[in-house]
Amino acid sequence: MTGPGYIDAHVHLRDAEGLADAKEAGVAAVRDAGTRDGAGLRVSAPDATKVISAGWALCKRGGYGSLFGVSLDTREQIAAEIQKLRAAGAGIIKVIASGMVSLKRPGEVTAGGFDREELLFLVDAARKNGLEVMAHANGEAAIVNAAEAGVRSVEHGFFMTEKALASLHANGVFWVPTVGALQRVAERPDVGYEAKRFVERTIDEHLSQVRKAFERGVPLAVGTDAVLQDRRYRDFYEAELAFLRKAGLPGDAIFAIACEGGKKLLGV
Ligand SMILES: [Zn+2]
């Protein structure tokens, strides 16, 4: 059961009303990872106190992520976009540091993401505007690059490795594993049997990395990656907690991750 005090560190607010789903599920605050039109920035008081919004994501031109944000090429564009987001009321900067888990090429990540130097520049530019960064990152290289660049959190983090976990730990970076996001992709009717099997194996491995992260002391938070409004929202949140149980985390630790972990990450 969800209840008051839970935090969702990764949703996408398609409109200001999307917050109602989270409230109904007893989720006290959400972090909006962005939509192309920045709908999350338009949530008005008093609900604005319960939403940290990235507005829209920053993506490398030609790569994954343009559905959730703006495509950029140069450092000048990156710096200008961050200033624009701050002026629009963003509470966090969302960057796409890699592609997504490929279902066509098992084990690979699709094209996309800023490189190491660009991430360093971006995190620095965000800090100059008083903002931290949340990074969509899958695969060891992107996770390590994001962590070393000083992002606040790594989102998804599929294909996590020992080296990547060590990098999160050393840099005090949160991991928001969004397990259900991949699970839901595999449930689509157009996804074939082999791809479904691959996703099952990937999730099993993901959960074993989540357990290692917990044991190592990597800070964790719960994120559903739900695109709101969505009537299934409560199920999504409960599924995420169930995944943490499946990973072998103790119940009190899961509760702490869902509440205190999220609060600390969001700064609420
Ligand atoms: Zn997302």
Descriptive notes:
The protein is an alpha/beta fold and 268 residues long. Helix 1 (19-24) links the parallel strand 1 and strand 2 (27-32). The strands form three sheets. A four-stranded parallel β-sheet has the order 3-2-1-10. The protein has a four-stranded parallel β-sheet with strand order 6-7-8-9, covered by helices on one side. The protein has a single domain (6-266), classed as Metal-dependent hydrolases (TIM Barrel). It has helices at 19-24, 75-87, 116-128, 140-149, 162-171, 179-186, 193-216, 233-246, 251-266; strands at residues 6-13, 27-32, 51-53, 57-60, 69-72, 93-96, 133-137, 153-156, 174-176, 226-228. It is 43% helix and 16% strand. Bound molecules: zinc ion (ZN). The site of zinc ion has 4 residues, from strand 1.
Keywords:
four-stranded parallel β-sheet; binds zinc ion; 268 residues; alpha/beta; 10 strands; TIM Barrel
Task: Give a brief description.
The protein is of the alpha/beta class and 268 residues long.
Bound molecules: zinc ion
Q: What is the level 1 CATH name?
A: Alpha Beta
CATH architecture, by name, is Alpha-Beta Barrel
The helix-strand sequence is EHEEEEHEHEHEHEHHEHH
Name the CATH superfamily classification.
Answer: Metal-dependent hydrolases
- Low-confidence regions: none
The rounded Rg comes to 17 Å
Beta-strand content: 15-25%
Q: Give the overall pLDDT as a whole number.
A: 95
Helix content: 40-55%
Give me the CATH fold name: TIM Barrel
* Sheet of most strands: 4 strands, parallel
- Could you tell me how far the N terminus lies from the C terminus, measured between alpha carbons in angstroms? 22 Å
The total beta strand count reads 10
What is the helix tally?
9
